Amino acid sequence: MSLPSEPEIADSLLDLVGKTPMVRLGRIGADLECDLVAKVETFNPGGSVKDRPAVAMIDAAERDGLLKPGGTIVEPTSGNTGVGLAIVAAQRGYQCIFVMSDKMSPEKVALLRAYGAEVVVCPTAVPPEHPDSYYSVADRLTRETPNAFRPDQYSNPNNPAEHERSTGPEIWHQTAGRITHFVAGVGTGGTITGVARYLKRMNPDVQIIGADPEGSVYSGGTGRPYLVEGVGEDFWPTTFDPSLVDRTVMVSDADSFLTARRVTREEGLLIGGSCGTAVHAALTVGAELGPEAMVVVLLPDSGRGYLSKIFNDDWMMDFGFIRCEGDCAGDVLAAKGGEIPALVLVKPDEPARNAWALMRDLGVSQVIVSVSTELPLAAKEVSGMLDELSLMELAFREGDALDRPAAELMSPAMPMVGIGEPVARLVEHLDRSSTLLVIDGGHPIGVLSRSDVLGYLAAKGGPR
Known about the structure:
Shape: globular
Oligomer: single chain
CATH topology of the largest domain: Rossmann fold
Number of strands: 16
């Protein structure tokens, strides 16, 4: 091999952003007639597609005088945009404050702190306008921090513009213009919007498919909590142009996580939950297509930020995504029968008297306090519980106790167990708590008591 005339050395890590490879998903797509190809964005220096808009947004802010030397970058992020911004900040001498929701993996928080960033964690189960939401907290920190700049990836036009400039042309070139369908998760909407603009300009017949978590507004949800990270939203960002999307595929947390694990094991490609969302949507679309079609699915990051979650069997079992061999919580729940509702719910602002009325009428000894009473419930929506013993004691001590809001009187939520957890683990939990909340695919579906487990064991003659 002959030597180049000049050393092939990048002047900065930022020069390595983009030009990511594509790979055929031949094993995961073996049953499809179409060609299934992945655009692998983990090859960016920060490990995700978000490196692209991170550089573009800071370049524009410097050019427009919005970010001064020694300034501070403040941004709400699911982690990946934060990493991209942190790399730019390290290269150019800025400070960083990132605001994240409490559903993000500990690896993501630790990674941002490794770059020297300050990380503020906020609750997930609050609306965007709530003062504790990560959008509101980011706004407040931007106002309070001297010489601060918020890129605001949700409204910054440089976000989709960068994907129109780089990601879209790369995909068109790498597929030699053969692409017929493009599939990507929708978070800020920047990636899918920018890529769609370019691809549809080159060929208006290219179909753009958004992959969206169950509960996100893009596929008709209300923004209720879900577990997959970095994709979906509870509001409509201005960086997203829905008119460019031909179809949206709703994907459950279970399908997202199990698909990510399957791709990792069958393709040797370690991907995260939002990648699983996109691949599941691509498989759904691909199943309808013939051999003339080429489906390109964008994989935004790797699975390294999710080792404590979707690649941890205990976590997956705790949230009801996988099950053990032998007797499990689901078997005990099924044996209860259906005489009473599986979940008895009251909202935090309802008077405790309503909770007592439900206990009396239904013959139950406790109710769940939840910010929503719409099923399926999300685990993050459970606030606490009320039980008849505690209410009796409060009513005896305080005459007006039952007229106070449930949120003021509730106890912490009962322990949660996955539907696939072994009966032995239920017995361990019930040694410390009288009841357990059973979770299936991230959704509470029923309550188990000591008598439920005892009745099951008595009928079965012990665990198997």
